Amino acid sequence: MTQKASIVTAGWGSGPGDNYDELAATFRPVFERIRAGAVERELSRTLPHEPIGWLKDARFGALRVPEKEGGFGASLPQLFALLIELSHADSNVTQALRAHFGFAEDIVNARSQDRRDRWLPRLSRGEIAGSAWTEIGEAKQAAFSTIVKLQAGKAASVTGAKYYTTGSLFADWIDIGASGEGGQSLSAVVARHAPGVDVIDDWDGFGQILTASGTTTFTDAPVDPADVVIDDDRFKYSAAFYQLVHLATLAGIGRAASDDVAAAVKARRRSYSNAPSPRPCEDAQVLQVVGRIRGAAYSAGAIVLKAADALRRAFDTRFAGDAAAEEQANAIAELEVAQAQTVVSTLILDASTIVFDALGASATQRSAALDRHWRNARTLSSHNPRIYKDRIIGDFAVNGTPPPYQWRIGQV
After folding, report:
1. pTM (2 decimals)?
2. Which residue range or ranges hold the Acyl-CoA dehydrogenase/oxidase N-terminal domain (predicted)?
3. Listed residues 128, 146, 165: the one ending a domain
4. What is the Cα–Cα distance from 158 to 178, expressed in whole angstroms?
5. Could you give the CA distance from residue 384 to residue 248 in angstroms, rounded to a whole number?
6. What is the pLDDT of residues 137-188, one digit of tens each?
């Protein structure tokens, strides 16, 4: 069953908000076009420049920009519902846009009117941002080795090397985590094609192979001082937001795996002599496996949308002027996403594994590309180690300890 069908009649449940189907109708033809070439791109390792270009033309990146600012004014649950649908088509594309939606969320949350006036028009036109935050090698947890230099407040430059710069190869702008010359934690935005910016597709992971999550180096790359922001000013539920994008992507992978296994079982004519039915499409045990996969995908999507509502509540407190309420809403959002993380990742990792229990050995042929679902799910589930989440949740349940908002990787 393809995305041309209503998500309700397809059995995935209704979207959030009365206007969701109207909003989604704008993008579903693009999703379908993306889905049509997903397997071929995977097999040929063709980076999704075209699909991302189609989404830019549709101004998909302006989903969270308020309507009065030229965007679509989507709620957070609506954004995540659409990311599930996009991931159903091709999870590589969602992962490549993850940094953009995090950057856009930061702008929508910005209290600085100058910053909003600077960036909302760009976002509403469909311009997209990549990310350059992670450092490897001898990188420290407490500070970035990438440095922003300010010159009398009139000009700035950034120098350093980043890895896992997902989406930057496709972007118009790159959002960078850096240190000031005095050691202060900052973020800066650099034009993707500015002098001194070099983006390399050297990602060699076995999953999400089309996201260009490789290395970006900055050599005295020019930065407008207006685009240098103190890190503490960024939106407070950012860790939960970025993680929930992963979970939405996993939910979409589950839907794609469900579709693929159902189509393969329906088309299959060969069966085993010890099977309970001569045709796989009538085999009760095979149908049970297909049903488990679909149920896992459905449950993952429902969990994502429930957690997205917690992010919506956190966003709603941003400008309410009640610091205590904002603090609590952000803590609960982080908690709910942490609770979702281990469950959703387990559901989809298991579902993408048992796909092969419903089919014969021919399903492992490279041309079928069914392995991409597990590889992609396994890679996404490794970004923010889930082994720590159950402990954090348990500490909250037993001791009332709030979950940490941010985390970094590196040497202590």
Report:
1. 0.95
2. 32-127
3. 128
4. 8
5. 14
6. 776 676 798 999 988 766 789 999 999 999 999 999 999 999 988 888 889 9
CATH number of the domain at 41, please.
1.10.540.10
Among 179, 213, 233, the domain boundary falls at 233
- Continuous segment of H or E residues that includes residue 117: helix 113-124
End-to-end CA distance of the chain: give it in Å, rounded: 50
Tell me: do 390 and 376 sit in the same domain.
Answer: yes
> Residue 194 is part of a domain; what is its CATH number?
2.40.110.10
Crossing angle of helices 91-109 and 238-267, in 10° steps, is: 160
Q: Which domain holds residue 365?
A: 238-399
Residue 5 lies in a domain: no
Taking the C-alpha atoms of residue 356 and residue 165, their distance in angstroms, rounded to an integer, is 33
CA–CA distance, 223 with 226 (Å, rounded to integer): 8
Cα–Cα distance for residue pair 43/203, rounded to 1 Å: 16
Total domains in the chain come to: 3
DSSP string, 8-25: TTTTS-PPSSTTHHHHHH
